[in-house]
Amino acid sequence: MASTSDIKNGLCIKYNNDIYKIIEFLHVKPGKGPAFVRTKLRSLSNGKVLDNTFSAGHKIEEVRVENHKFQFLYPEGDLYHFMNVESFEQISLNKNILDSPDLLKEGESVMVSINTETDLPLSVDMPASVILEVTYAEPGIKGNTATNATKSATVETGATVNVPLFINEGDKIKIDTASGSYMERVKV
User: Fold this and answer.
1) Which of 99, 125, 151 is the last residue of a domain?
2) Which of 3, 10, 19, 139 is deepest in the core (most CB within 10 A)?
3) Angle at CA 55, nearest 5°, toward 49 and 56?
4) What is the signed CA dihedral for 87, 111, 93, 115, rounded to 10 degrees?
5) pLDDT tens per residue, range 126-171
6) What are 111-121's pLDDT values in tens digits?
7) Of 73, 94, 125, which one is at a domain's C-terminal end?
8) Are 120 and 133 members of one domain?
9) How far is CA 49 from CA 24, 32, 66, 97, 114, in A?
10) Is 112 exposed, middle or buried, given 0-12, 13-18 or 19+ CB atoms closer than 10 A?
């Protein structure tokens, strides 16, 4: 058993008969009253995010996980197929376990958290950013550059991203996987 002082981002815990991953936390020590920990938990079974407050010293049941490097192979409907880069074992995961499945390119490396008790995959950690090629973008209109204007662009995985007006088809761009937003243009 762990306590609230052991809470950190990425920790997997059992709560309300489900397994949750802590995605955000904040220790609060008010001037009056007892301390507490405000958390944001993501359910690993259905992907829903839950806000919860634990009182200081509250016991939480920790789930032991191992992280393994997997390579994304291909999507098939709602299933995404991955291969362990060490053992070459293949697994299929449901689309709702992934944070941003529309940004996954074939051959991309991800970290998969596996429950050590049941050997079942719990979550997939995407890289912080991905580099994708723009397959379709409206042409930028001259004169709109004085403001911080953006336009919609489609990348090679089919995802739609808002990009600055100077981005054209064929450009490679870096995308933040946490927010799905444009970061920068990448020189080839």
Assistant:
1) 125
2) 19
3) 120
4) 80
5) 888 899 999 998 877 666 566 677 888 999 988 899 998 888 888 9
6) 988 888 888 88
7) 125
8) no
9) 11, 29, 22, 12, 20
10) buried
Contact 63, 113 (CB under 8 A): no
Q: Which domain holds residue 175?
A: 129-185
- The conformation of residue 64, written as its DSSP 8-state character, comes to -
The tokens for 18 are 């489900």
Residues 23 and 40 in one domain: yes
Chain center to CA of 101: 9
Q: Are residues 133 and 120 in the same domain?
A: no
CA neighbor of 74 nearest in space, from 134, 135, 153, 157? 157
- Its sign, for the CA torsion 11, 15, 19, 24, is negative
